[in-house]
């Protein structure tokens, strides 16, 4: 290779220009006298042999430099600023990810889900309804029946297939945290939902965390997490308040007991404060919920009627209260007081009392602690003292040992009372329960009994006699088909009304003109008054409720920590970019200096040749 070739190749590969040019200069300096006789395939007689006539001369290049206009590279300022302020897409900084929450089961579980969503949103996480775009799935489970757990298990599998971070909540992992399909996954216990942010943060960092302990005060079990935590209500007009957790029963089929445990009630004043706060945030309907509302207060020296009388004092005009499920044993001693409360104009005349079976033999095997006569006494008394009251009930078909005669007794009970709201459930043996070890009714028999009882239920229409009535209804939501607004009358019966935005969250008077199995349709009367609850404007959908001063302080500390971490990351990123730019600038200057020195070396060699 001749020196001319070496120079030309050096100019073709500027990435390695510094080293190659240094080598060029050493070769040139060592062979200044020998250059004309350098070994090449063709002897170079003149410098023009490597600089052709078509190539620009040094003076031409110097002249042309005066007319060079540098091309300005336009930067996408908006995109640049966004990149500067946003963390990398694979960042593990907590508090910036999107979270999808799915809840199965009862009102209590839904309330827990709302609390977890509120805390996460308050800490900066974005709660999304799009599962595919979420970084983490929070799955809040129900353990009552096999199908609910099957859906839960399938959701876990899907999340793993899509490489989502996963946090599990609810009764399934609380009751059986050692199941194989839960291994290696983070779990938040039913009484630890106030620590959901910690669990999510650690999960995002790649850790597996499990918090399954019980809330206690001086050794006494508490109702659960605090009621004044932030929450995002699924429906901004409806507040779900859990008045207690757990129960006093030991039903042989129930898995929920394994998760929620024994009865633990919230103090009356805390529940009243929560109701007040809800009304201040525009709520017009409160649902009281628990595993057994009738047992409320037995562990803290009070009772359900005592709580309800305190609550009705703070319910504003135009708002309503709905009482949740109560088992027969614990409502029997309060029947007189309960009748008075259910007659209150701001309390729905509605009560959910599960009977489960009309056979005393089956009830004994279930360990329900009452007989059919007790259930009938409760229903008959309330129907007499609270005219028009809606009694909802539950029935299990195919419990172990249930005979055809037992089942026929249940059918007769439904035919006698014609319950307008009836929840029919095929029996599913839940792992770890006494009923799972009993001799099972054949699956086909269970299915047939469920079908037969459903046919009895659909054989009557409970609302036909109400056509033509004028009713006052509270509008709270939109129907599933989006064609109507859903309202409820005094007896918590569903009434569909026209979609007039001025009705939402208010009471209106309607004429009932049509009825179905589960609903009535009402047309607002021409002289109808719209009763607006004397409460504040409702929160927007997705808005966080209950940001107390204490929580704001905790939130501020957390966000400062996240901001510091994020700022440090961005500062490090900016420093790295600046260092890279300086390195490139240094390399560029060195390359240019090498080119200049190489040209001088050419000229120097050319002059020596001419002089010789």
TrEMBL record:
- Its primary localisation, in coarse terms, equals membrane
Identify the CDD domains for this entry.
Radical_SAM
Q: Which reaction does it catalyse?
A: N(6)-L-threonylcarbamoyladenosine(37) in tRNA + (sulfur carrier)-SH + AH2 + 2 S-adenosyl-L-methionine = 2-methylsulfanyl-N(6)-L-threonylcarbamoyladenosine(37) in tRNA + (sulfur carrier)-H + 5'-deoxyadenosine + L-methionine + A + S-adenosyl-L-homocysteine + 2 H(+)
Q: What are the GO cellular component annotations? A: endoplasmic reticulum; membrane
- Tell me a Gene Ontology molecular-function term this record carries: metal ion binding
SMART domains referenced in this protein's UniProt entry, alphabetically: Elp3
Which Enzyme Commission number(s) are listed? Answer: 2.8.4.5
- Bilayer-crossing residues are 591-611
Q: Which InterPro entries would you find in this protein's record? A: Elp3/MiaA/NifB-like_rSAM, Methylthiotransferase, Methylthiotransferase_CS, Methylthiotransferase_N, Methylthiotransferase_N_sf, MiaB-like_arc_euk, rSAM, rSAM_horseshoe
- What is this protein's function? Catalyzes the methylthiolation of N6-threonylcarbamoyladenosine (t(6)A), leading to the formation of 2-methylthio-N6-threonylcarbamoyladenosine (ms(2)t(6)A) at position 37 in tRNAs that read codons beginning with adenine.
Name used for this protein in its record: Threonylcarbamoyladenosine tRNA methylthiotransferase
């Amino acid at each position: 290779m001749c020196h001319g070739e070496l120079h030309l190749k050096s100019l073709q590969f500027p990435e390695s220009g510094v080293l190659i040019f240094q080598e060029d200069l050493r070769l040139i300096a060592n062979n200044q006298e020998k250059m004309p006789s350098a070994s090449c395939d063709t002897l170079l007689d003149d410098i023009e042999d490597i600089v052709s006539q078509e190539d620009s001369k040094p003076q031409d290049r110097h002249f042309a430099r005066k007319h060079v206009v540098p091309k300005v590279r336009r930067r996408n300022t908006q995109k640049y600023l966004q990149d500067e302020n946003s963390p990398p897409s694979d960042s593990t900084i907590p508090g910036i990810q999107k979270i999808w929450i799915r809840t199965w089961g009862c009102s209590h579980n839904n309330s827990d889900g709302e609390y977890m969503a509120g805390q996460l949103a308050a800490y900066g996480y974005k709660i999304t309804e799009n599962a595919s775009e979420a970084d983490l799935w929070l799955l809040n489970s129900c353990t009552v029946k096999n199908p609910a757990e099957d859906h839960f298990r399938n959701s876990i599998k899907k999340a793993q297939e899509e490489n989502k971070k996963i946090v599990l909540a609810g009764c399934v992992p609380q009751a059986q945290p050692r199941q194989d399909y839960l291994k290696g996954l983070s779990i938040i216990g039913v009484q630890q939902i106030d620590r959901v942010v910690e669990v999510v943060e650690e999960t995002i960092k790649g850790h597996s965390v499990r918090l399954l302990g019980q809330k206690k005060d001086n050794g006494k079990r508490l109702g659960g997490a605090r009621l004044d935590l932030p929450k995002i209500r699924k429906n901004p007009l409806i507040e779900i308040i859990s008045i207690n957790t757990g129960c006093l029963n030991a039903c042989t089929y129930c898995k929920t007991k394994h998760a929620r445990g024994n009865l633990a009630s919230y103090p009356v004043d805390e529940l009243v404060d929560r109701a007040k706060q809800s009304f201040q945030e525009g709520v017009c309907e409160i649902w009281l919920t628990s595993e057994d509302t009738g047992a409320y207060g037995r562990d803290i020296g009070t009772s359900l009627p005592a709580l309800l009388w305190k609550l009705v004092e703070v319910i504003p005009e135009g708002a309503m209260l709905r009482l949740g499920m109560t088992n027969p044993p614990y409502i029997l001693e309060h029947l007189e007081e309960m009748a008075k409360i259910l007659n209150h104009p701001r309390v729905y005349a509605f009560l959910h009392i599960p009977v489960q079976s009309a056979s005393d033999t089956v009830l004994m095997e279930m360990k329900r602690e009452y007989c059919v006569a007790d259930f009938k006494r409760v229903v008959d008394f309330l129907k007499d003292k609270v005219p028009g009251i809606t009694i909802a009930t539950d029935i299990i078909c195919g419990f172990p040992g249930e005979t055809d005669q037992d089942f026929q007794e249940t059918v007769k009970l439904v035919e006698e009372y014609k319950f307008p709201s009836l929840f029919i459930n095929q029996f599913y043996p839940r792992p770890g329960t006494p009923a799972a070890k009993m001799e099972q009714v054949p699956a086909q028999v269970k299915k047939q009994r469920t079908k037969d009882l459903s046919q009895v239920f659909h054989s009557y229409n409970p609302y036909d006699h109400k056509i033509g009535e004028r009713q006052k209804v509270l509008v709270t939501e939109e129907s599933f088909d989006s064609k109507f607004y859903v309202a409820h009358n005094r007896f918590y019966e569903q009434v569909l009304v026209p979609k007039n935005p001025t009705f939402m969250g208010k009471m209106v008077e309607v004429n009932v003109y049509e009825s179905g199995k589960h609903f009535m349709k009402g047309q607002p009367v021409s002289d109808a008054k719209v009763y607006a609850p004397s409460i504040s404007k409702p929160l927007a959908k997705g808005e966080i409720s209950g940001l107390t001063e204490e929580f704001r302080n905790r939130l501020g500390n957390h966000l400062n920590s996240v901001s510091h971490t994020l700022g440090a990351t961005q500062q490090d990123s900016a420093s790295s970019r600046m260092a890279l730019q300086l390195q490139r600038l240094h390399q560029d200057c060195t390359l240019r200096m090498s080119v200049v020195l190489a040209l001088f070396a050419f000229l120097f060699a050319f002059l020596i040749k001419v002089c010789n």
